[in-house]
Every structure is written in structure tokens, then in C-alpha cells.
Write a structure and sequence with these properties.
cell membrane; 4-stranded antiparallel sheet; elongated; 6-stranded mixed sheet; 2 domains; alpha/beta; membrane; 12 helices; Rossmann fold; binds magnesium ion; Alpha-Beta Plaits; binds adenosine-5'-diphosphate
Length: 326
């Protein structure tokens, strides 16, 4: 479990004070994946550096599985850091070492006995699906395979936490899917706590249980994926489930519908046509499963003798979020 409380980090730049993190509070339960999204300059890298103790926060605390990292003595920083595995955008492997030698590296640094290293490295390479590539050099591996080696190396010290900084930003779509599936599976098998820094909403959709939006050092929106998507006032919901652009006809009333969970699985629209003697025409829409729940976003055109206010009231009652399109 990761708990960040009132974290602040300021930098001095000449006369100016730059607040890179401003009162950041978040918590990630064990066995789950939390996404941090934000534009360039939002403070994502600063957060990663504070979590890995590469940088000391100005105030606030970072607690990982009960241990307050901000209170760790300088002499214990290295040991504390071993509890956190890091996965980067580029695997940053050593070219002169084979896959297994790369994975072995963090274990050699702490003088793990040779036999144990061999056993552990074999286990890790199997875990990431690269058992046959143990003796391959990075130049002989694809981008996705290199990232798998990077993940195996991050897991070598049996960390409780995995910090992934843009883990798929350098990969093609198919490889991105593979790596995301691997991260998701490892989170479950090893009961890891995972933080994924990304600018890609796709990554959040595919693997995150919860998400925070960082802007100018502050978390301006956060929550479980289901809640964030259902929140009509926030910007994350619109980015996660955008309404496809439409050519507006304007002769009939149009409604934007957000169907969440129960309402996304129920025949709400066919019931509407019966009750209101309406014809409903879907102009645009998507239905997706996010964090195990179904979501639908639809724009519909409604032709009914009954007032539109009655129809929206019925839909809201059925658990659908409705906005009358302008
Ligand atoms: N070492 C530093 N000295 C001064 N300012 C910094 C330093 N590191 C980051 N910043 C500033 O802090 C803010 C957040 O930066 P950063 O964490 O790198 O954002 P992101 O990773 O989201 O792009 C930016 O305004 C950046 O200029
Ligand atoms: Mg950055």
C-alpha cells in the first residue's frame, strides 16, 4: 500500500520558488493499479523522484507498506529503495549483458549468492515470458521483449511497489497491449501496489483501478475509474469516454447519455421507446468495459409525442446520466 500525504516539493530558482508538488495526497491499496495523468510540467517526474527517494520532499509524507520513506536515514536509503521496482519508458538495459545478466545486476549489487541469483533470474524470466531468451543480448530483442527484461529486473529485489513511468510510450499498439496485460497479471500474481505515470488515457482505461489528474502540482481530480467516468463535471470522464463527434441535425431533440454499470447492461432504450411511444435514433456512441464495469456513451435523437423533460426524468431514474445536447 502506498500512502502519500500532503506532499510538497519546492525548488529554488534564483529569486523564484517553484512549487512542483502542492499538497498531494493519494493512496493506492495493495494489489491495485493507480494511474497518474497530467500534462508536461504537471509534476509527475517530481512525484516519482520523491517516491523513489531520489529527491527529498519539502514536507509531507510517503508511506509504503507502513514505512515512512521521508524518515529513512540517508544510510538506509538504498535498502528502502529496493522495496520499489522502477519501470521506465525505455528499458535502459546494458547492451553488453544478456537478458539474464541484466536481470541479475541488482542482485549482484547486494552480493546475493550465485546459485540464488541463477534460480531467481530463471524464475523472473519465465514470469515475464522470456525463458528462451535468457542468453539473448538487448540488440537481439524487440522493444517489447526489452521492456519485459526491464520489468523482470525491476522485480528482482522482490519489491512491494512497482512504479511505472510511461511504460508503453515507446511501444507500438500491439506491444503496448502485451505489456499492459503483463503488468496487470503481475499485479495480481505478486500482489503488488502499482503506480503508473502516463499521458495516455488508453493505459488508464486498460489497467488502472483508480486514477488521479495532476495539474500544476495539484491533484485536481481523483477516484476509482467508475466514479471518475460517471462524474459529469470533471475532465477525466470526458477524456476516458469521449463522445464521438457528430453531425448535429437539430430538427429533433438530442440527448447525451452516459450509462454506467447497471444502466449500461439494461435495455433502457427499448423500454423508453415502449413507454413514451418514441423512436430513438443512435447518432453516435461507444460501449466499453473499464475496470470491470460497463460504460456506454451515446448521443441519441428522440422523436416522441411526450415532453422531453419526462423522458430525461425516466432515464435519470434508470441510472443514466443525461444532458440535453445544445
Ligand atoms: N530540479 C528542478 N529545479 C527547478 N525546477 C524544477 C526541477 N524539477 C522540476 N522542476 C519544475 O517543477 C515542475 C514540475 O516538473 P516535472 O515534475 O518534471 O513535471 P512532469 O514530469 O509532469 O512533466 C515544472 O515546472 C518544472 O519546471
Ligand atoms: Mg516528466
Amino acid at each position: 500500500m502506498i500512502t502519500v500525504t500532503n506532499l510538497r516539493k519546492t525548488y529554488r530558482q534564483g529569486e523564484r520558488t517553484i512549487t512542483a508538488l502542492d499538497d498531494v495526497t493519494l493512496s493506492v491499496p495493495k494489489g491495485s493499479i493507480h494511474g497518474i495523468v497530467g500534462h508536461s510540467g504537471a509534476g509527475k517526474s517530481t512525484l516519482v523522484r520523491c517516491l523513489t527517494l531520489l529527491d527529498r520532499p519539502s514536507s509531507g509524507s510517503v508511506v509504503i507498506d507502513g514505512r515512512d520513506l521521508t524518515r529513512v536515514k540517508d544510510s538506509e536509503v538504498r535498502t528502502a529503495r529496493r522495496r520499489i521496482g522502477m519501470v521506465f519508458q525505455h528499458a535502459n538495459l546494458m547492451d553488453s549483458r544478456t537478458a539474464s545478466q541484466n536481470v541479475a545486476h541488482p542482485l549482484e549489487l547486494v552480493k546475493t549468492p550465485k546459485g540464488e541469483i541463477a534460480r531467481k533470474v530463471g524464475e523472473l524470466l519465465s514470469l515475464v515470458g522470456l525463458a528462451e531468451f535468457a542468453d539473448a543480448y538487448p540488440s537481439q530483442l524487440s522493444g517489447g521483449q526489452k521492456q519485459r527484461v526491464g520489468i523482470a529486473r525491476a522485480l528482482a529485489s522482490d519489491p512491494d511497489v512497482l512504479l511505472c513511468d510511461e511504460p508503453t510510450s515507446a511501444l507500438d499498439p500491439a506491444t503496448t497491449e502485451d505489456i499492459l496485460t503483463l503488468i496487470r497479471n503481475l499485479t495480481h500474481t505478486l500482489n503488488l501496489t502499482v503506480l503508473v505515470i502516463t499521458h495516455e488515457m488508453h493505459v488508464v482505461k486498460r489497467i488502472c483501478d483508480s486514477v488521479s489528474l495532476l495539474e500544476r502540482g495539484r491533484i485536481i481530480e481523483h477516484g476509482p475509474l467508475q466514479d471518475v467516468v460517471g462524474n459529469r463535471t470533471g475532465s477525466l470522464g470526458k477524456s476516458l469516454m469521449p463522445l464521438p463527434s457528430t453531425a448535429v441535425n437539430q430538427s429533433l431533440p438530442e440527448l447525451d447519455l452516459l450509462l454506467v454499470g447497471r444502466s449500461a447492461s439494461a435495455p433502457v432504450l427499448s423500454e423508453l421507446t415502449r413507454r413514451f411511444d418514441a423512436s430513438v435514433n443512435v447518432i453516435a456512441g461507444t460501449v466499453e468495459t473499464l475496470a470491470g464495469s460497463r460504460f456506454g456513451r451515446l448521443r441519441v435523437e428522440v422523436d416522441s409525442p411526450r415532453p422531453i423533460s419526462e423522458i430525461t426524468a425516466y432515464l435519470e431514474d434508470a441510472g443514466v446520466h443525461v444532458e440535453v445536447a445544445a
